[in-house]
Specification:
By secondary structure, this protein is α/β, with parallel strands linked by helices. It folds into 3 domains: about 20-105, Orthogonal Bundle (Helix Hairpins); about 120-195, no CATH class; about 200-295, Glutaredoxin (3-Layer(aba) Sandwich), CATH 3.40.30.10. Helix content is about 35%, strand content about 15%. The chain has helices at about 1-15, 20-25, 35, 40-45, 55-70, 75-85, 100-105, 185-195, 210-220, 240-245, 265-270, and strands at about 115-120, 130-135, 150, 165-170, 180, 200-205, 225-230, 250-260, 275-280, 285, 290-295. The strands form 4 sheets. A 4-stranded mixed β-sheet has the order 6-8-7-9. A hairpin with a 6-residue loop joins strand 4 (about 165-170) and strand 5. It is elongated and about 80 Å long. Keywords: Signal.
Length: about 300
Amino acid sequence: LLAALLVVLLLDAGCAESQDYYQLLGVSREANTREIRQFKKLALTMHPDKNPNDPEAHERFLKVNQAYEVLKDEDLRKKYDKYGEKGFDDHKRGGQYESWNYYRYDFGIYDDDLEIITLDRGDFGKNGFWHLSSYICLHFHSHRPNYSTIQLQCNSNIYLLYSGLFLLFIFEGKKKPEKFSGDRSKDNLVRFSMQFITTTVTQLWQEGNVFKEIENAFMSGLGWLVTFCFDTGDCLEPRTRQKLAGMLDGLVKVGWMDCSMEMQLCGSFKATSGATAFFPPDFSVNREGSVLVRP
């Protein structure tokens, strides 16, 4: 009986030693990066600095920190999913951690902002607009309202930083990064970024391309986002149309109609003032009336 009890205790201890990393962080195995970074909430409550009278707080938090360090890294996460903790016997991560103040005031300060993506080294090499800033000087965060920031977690990836605290680069495929220089006003930042958006915005007109363009897109499974421009109403500005075309590239086509010149065409779409409408690809074109209708 004593031997059996000892075996059970050893098995329980083994299970505790190899507790699943996903369970430790309270996330599913399909969790995305943002969900994994909710580790911050655990850090604020489990950190030894907040539990000075708990002799097990250090070891418990060390385990949670190790789980985070592995799962936040795409390559290490794949290795863990395949081999479990055995894949890290010779290379333990998460053996050190920051102070409670770091997790409270510096770590993941943008995680709740859906417009901001926090980067790790695994994200580099991908196309995109990258604004790299540092937590070192909060003065630079006053620029954030001017654009959607893509934030680099400097503390854990310090070797990725360029010299300088506030930089904007365009990384486009394998091309050399384009560096922004000049006054960091909203207009200048947008103007610099827009030159790299080359997606076509199509002007549609009655006697030319309207049927061909719409039908070709529908046949490819793409819908149309069309803005109807009158002297009154809400017509999307050219820059806004270009932004949408870039953001929605491969999902929908973006077009516009000059209703001061194409009054009959716009009327056939039942547009009487400036407006924007989305037509999914299950619509069809009535060539006689130029009206998009569901089949």
